Write the structure tokens for this entry.
Amino acid sequence: MTQEERIKSIVDYLGSHMRIGMEEICALYQVSYDTARRDLVRMEQEGLIVRIRGGAMLPAASKHIKNYKDRQEHADSKQAIARVAASLIQDGEDLILDTGTTTQYTAEFLKSRNNVVVTNSIDIAAVLCDKPEVTTHLLGGELNSWHRYAFGPRAIEMLADIKVDKLFLGACGITPEGVFATTVEEAYMKREMIKRSNQVILLADASKFNKSMFHRVCAFELIDMVITDEKPAEPFRSAFKESGITLMLTSETERPAD
């Protein structure tokens, strides 16, 4: 069994048992204590668990992030958001597509021509392989196989020399204080993407609102537009208006936040 397979199995185990001890991991998966410790260290780094004395437990339910392939819930809402996002892309524009299921759908719905797309997502890069009118730059670095993106100093260095017209940004959580990510590496990557973009467009279905993570990516002042499927409640609308954000709903045409 690979480490990725063990991690998925441990997460599934925690879903029904809430806690797991080091001895249980060793017995269940026939691995050494050091291997079990390395698994838990990696899971903690990726925001999947909270380590406790002698083992681990799940974070608060609202903070647990499934692996990339399992994050297909709310697919209709995400596809609707992605269709609106793709409709905003003009021929010849340079883009950054952040990792995520909604941004992957945006790549699938892309109809414009002669675009340059920069991404750290291996799945988005695979989608764009079938679009000959798109030039794709895949950022390199360490691969997060759980979420299927590249990260680290090399990826950030590659971003340092570019400037694009639009960034389509994903989020793990959004509160009135801003946009949040599960890991510090992901937060740094998103921040660098924001710096390299003339327009920052946040794609977030309703499930992302009022969900806080440990690492804040940015405040709303750095976001130009939010595309979502449901009208956000207060205090989000006031925060958007104060920050000059354009709010677009999938059921409506573009309009200012109110």
The CA atoms of residues 25 and 36 lie 6 Å apart. The longest strand covers residues 197-203. The radius of gyration is 19 Å. The chain has nine helices and 16 strands.
